[in-house]
Amino acid sequence: MIRKGVINYQSNPLVSFFKKCRTLNQLKQIHAHLLKSHLPGNPFAFGPLLSLAATSNNPSFFSHACLIFQNLSHRNIFIYNSMIRGYVLSQAPVRAILCYLNMLNYGFSANNYTFPPLIKACNILGSTAKLIGCLVHAHVVTSGFDEDPFVVSALIEFYSLNYDMGTARTLFDRIPKRDVVLWTAMVDGYGKMGDIENARTLFEEMPDRNAISWSAIMAAYSRAGDFKEVLCLFRRMQEAGIKPNESVLVSILTACANLGALAQGLWIHSYAKLCSFDSNTILATALVDMYSKCGCVDSALSTFHGIPSKDAGAWNAMISGVAMNGDARKSLELFNDMVSNGTQPTETTFVAVLTACTHARLVKEGLKLFEQMSSNYGVEPQLEHYGCLVDLMARAGMLTEAEKFIEEKMGGLGRGDANVWGALLGACRTYGNIEVGNRVWRKLADMGVADCGSHVLSYNLYKESGWDMEAKRVRRLISEAGMKKKPGCSIIEVNGTVEVFLAGDLSHSQAPDICRTLDFLFNIGSLDNYNGA
Length: 533
Description:
Layout: H1 15-18, H2 24-37, H3 43-54, H4 59-71, H5 77-89, H6 93-105, H7 115-123, H8 129-142, H9 149-161, H10 165-174, H11 180-193, H12 196-205, H13 211-223, H14 227-239, H15 246-259, H16 262-274, H17 281-293, H18 297-305, H19 312-324, H20 328-340, H21 347-360, H22 363-377, H23 383-395, H24 399-408, H25 418-431, H26 434-447, H27 452-464, H28 468-480, E1 489-494, E2 497-502, H29 511-532
Antiparallel strand pairs: 1-2
C-alpha cells in the first residue's frame, strides 16, 4: 500500500521516548513493542523509530534501521527521506541515490526535505559527482523546489565543491528573496574557491548575519593564510553581539596558532570551557595545535589527554606538536600509542613522525617507518613523504644516498618539487659538497626549473665553493627571470595585538623608534665584545 499523506511526526507522543534510546538492545525492545502494538507495516508507527536509528551516527543503529526499512511493507516519504539521510551520514552515497530511485518507483514525489541530503550524497560520490549532481538538479527544477532556500543552498555548495561558482551565482541571483542560508552558502563557496574578494563583497552586502556567516568568512581568510584579518573579523563579530559557535572558535584558534597569539588563544580556551565546547574533538585538536605552535607543550599534552575519543586528527596534532618543539622521541612514543589504541595512521601522521626523525637525525628510525608505511599500515607514500626522507638523509650528511634515493625510488629529480630540491641543495651547501650540488643543479637547469629557492641555494653553494663563473651564471638566470626571494617574516604579540614584520620593510608606524633601539642594542653588544677582547 502506498501512503502519500504528509504526517507531522513531531506530534507523535513516542518521539520524545525514542530520543532517550541509548543502546541497540533498547532500540530492539522499542521495535518489539511496536510490532506487538501496531500493524507491522504501519509507517506512521515505525517512522520516528526508523528516523532516529538511521540518522543517529551509530553504525549498529543504522544497520537496524536498514533491517526495519527492508521489512516494511508500507512506506511513506518521511521514511525514505530518513533513509537517504542515513545513507549520506554513513558515507554511502550510491545507496542514498538508489534509495531515492526506489522511492520514485514506489510512486512517491520528492519534497523539500528529500533534496538537501540527496545533493550532499552527490558531493561525496567521486568521479561521477558532477554528472549525477546535474541530474538531481534537473529533478529539483521539475519538482518545483528550485526556489527553496535550503535546496538552493545545497546546490550552491555542490557547484562550489565542483569549482563552478558561475552556476552557483546564477542560482543565487535568480532567487528573489534570499535568506541568511543562501547568502552564507555563497560566501562559503567563494571562500572554498579561494576567491576572497567576492566572498568579502557578498559578506559585506548581507542584510543579516549569523554565527555561521561569520564562520564562513573567517574560514575563507584562514585558508588564504590572512590570519590577522581572521582576528579582526572576530572583533567585529563580538562588537555585533553575535555569539561564536565552535567553527568560529576553530578558525580563531588556527589564526592564534599561526600568529603565535598565545594570550588570545588562552582567552578562547577559557571561553570554550565556559560554553562546554572543549569536549568537541575538532575544537580540542585546534587547541592542541595552538598550544604546540606557541611553545606550550605541557598545555598541549594536558588538552590532548583530556580528549575522550581521540581521532587521527587529534593524534596527528599532538605528534606534530611535540616534534616541532624538538622532542622526536616523544613523537615516536605517541605514534606507537596511537597504533596501540587502534587508531589508523594517516598520510599526515607519517609526515609528522618523519619530520620529527629528520630534525633529530634519527635516520634508522625514519627509514624503518618509511618502509612500514605501505606494508604495515596500508598508507602509500606521497611526494611529501619522499621529500621528508630526502631531507632526513641529506641533513645527516648522506648526500650520495639521498641523490641515489631520488633517482631510484622517486624516478629522478623531475618527480620531485621545491622541497625535495631545496633539501638536497641546502645540505650540499651545509656540508660543502660541491660535486653532488653541481650534479643536482645541472639536472634542474636542464629541466628548466624556475624555483627561486633552488636558484638562490645553488648560487650560494657555488659562491662559497669558489666557483665564481657558475655563481655568476646562476645569478644572471635569477635576474633575467625576474625572480625575487620571498622576504623573511617575524610575528610578535604585544598586549594582545599581533605585529608582523617583513625583512627590509619600514612601513610600520614605529619603524624609526624600532631601528634606533636595535642600533642601540647592537652598539652595546659591540662594546661588550670590545671589552671582552
